[in-house]
Amino acid sequence: MTAKQIQQVHSTTPQVAEELRKMIDTGFPMLAMGLISYLKNMILVMCMGRLGSLELAGGALAIGFTNITGYSLLSGLALGMEPLSSQAFGSKNFNMLSLTLQRTIAMLLVVSLPISILWFNLEPLMLWLHQDPMIIHTAAVFCQFAMPDLVANSFLHPLRIYLRCKGTTWPLLWSTLLATLFHIPVVFYLTFTLRLGIKGIAISTYVANFINVLFLLAYIFYTKEQNESTLNKPLATTNLKPSASLGEEWMILLRLAIPSCLAVCLEWWWYEFMTLLAGYLDKPQVTLATAAIVIQTTSLMYTLPSALSSSISSRVGNELGAGRPGKARLATDIAIVMAFLASTFGILLTTLGREVWVKIFTTDSEVLELTMTVLPIIGLCELANCPQTTCCGVLRGSARPNIGAFINFYSFYVMGAPLAIILAFVLRLGFKGLCYGLLAAELACVVSMLVVIYRTDWEKEWAKSKELVGANGEASYEDLIIKYKGEEFRFCIEDGVDLEK
């Protein structure tokens, strides 16, 4: 085999096509699932609006509070199992795969306890901060009746990640679709027929999530997985012994979960920070309404990078666990190219489609004018946000969430936040200044992420994977040194590659 052939082992057209197929097969169900979840949230807000302005205001406050103090923490902590699960599956360490699932569920259930105490005491806390008593009471009722949803999410997030890390994403889509189809009539029945009001909305949410959990558990325990069972038995018969409560493996999970949580929360909280600042600008009714539309817009656009991030995290982890660092690098390159292409959707929505989109939410002339002015800036943010979110997935899959957390911190809070305040309040650009601050944060984030990703030593990451999960790629990966005309070429022999001696 010639030197040129050796260097081309990782970049043949069939390999690129195969990797692209795997990315789409994994990512498309995640994208569809994100859109269904977005629709579900819009239905909740619509029901609150039909109940009245007080319920809408209280419900909006409750949703923001539960997102900041609860759901963001649970979803972020659950992501700590991604590198362990994906690399364990790639290395065929199925015992670690099962134990990681159990430990993550246990961790989230423990974390849910202080969160539930906080939710239960929302009313006295907010009254101490001199908020409107009627709005606070409505929000407190929602939070108290939504507390069981913490338990549902403590199971739902790990189960989704568990299946996703095995490349099994279509069941996630079907379970979400079925749960949402069940949720729609239930929320209307509880809210309007039984006249439970805001309580019915909260109850319907956790009922739908528990149904989703049951669907996923049924799939896991009664479906045969060829990739996991050499005995071809249902997963219900595999070894699922309870894990130890202490030990080094628990510490590894926590060391991955905490920075993963920070990486998610730091970016999530920035949007709430922007909404808070919007309330201090001139004409706060207009700026807050615009902020609400912007957040709805970014939530819709985020479904694309979120699906890519989840997909590439699993792919990178699987390939590193299987001992194929070259394929992990190839998957990363393809995912980042796809991310830049996908970001054009956000630009088109916020430029060519902005007028139609904004009129879905409001007919107020001032809100229309301001929102249509700032949406193109938000579109530029998406040009950076889509690749940087995808890069976060690469870092998670290679067990480096601490780098993502650090980059998010200095990008959004050291650079973005001060610049946003200066532009909005000192230079008096108003809400546009806040959006420019977000753009600066996103640009700093994506540049930093890309530098880290393209300086990655993938063979070193494979070696780290061996230490983390006992990766074993002997069947498909051989680290060889070939002498050719006095030079050394280091490469991987992938399955099916025929070498000429």
What features would you describe in this structure?
The structure is a single chain. This protein is an all-alpha fold and 501 residues long. The protein has one domain (3-460). Helices cover 78% and strands 2% of the residues. It has 19 helices and two strands. It has helices at residues 3-7, 13-51, 53-78, 81-90, 94-120, 122-128, 133-146, 148-164, 170-193, 198-222, 248-278, 284-301, 303-321, 325-351, 354-361, 365-397, 401-426, 431-454, 458-469; strands at residues 479-484, 487-492. It has a two-stranded antiparallel ribbon. Helix 2 packs across helix 13, helix 2 packs across helix 14 (325-351) and helix 3 packs across helix 8 (148-164). The longest helix is centred in the first third of the chain and has 39 residues, at 13-51. The protein is globular. The N and C termini lie close together (6 Å). The model is unreliable at 1-10, 226-246 and 473-501 (pLDDT under 50).
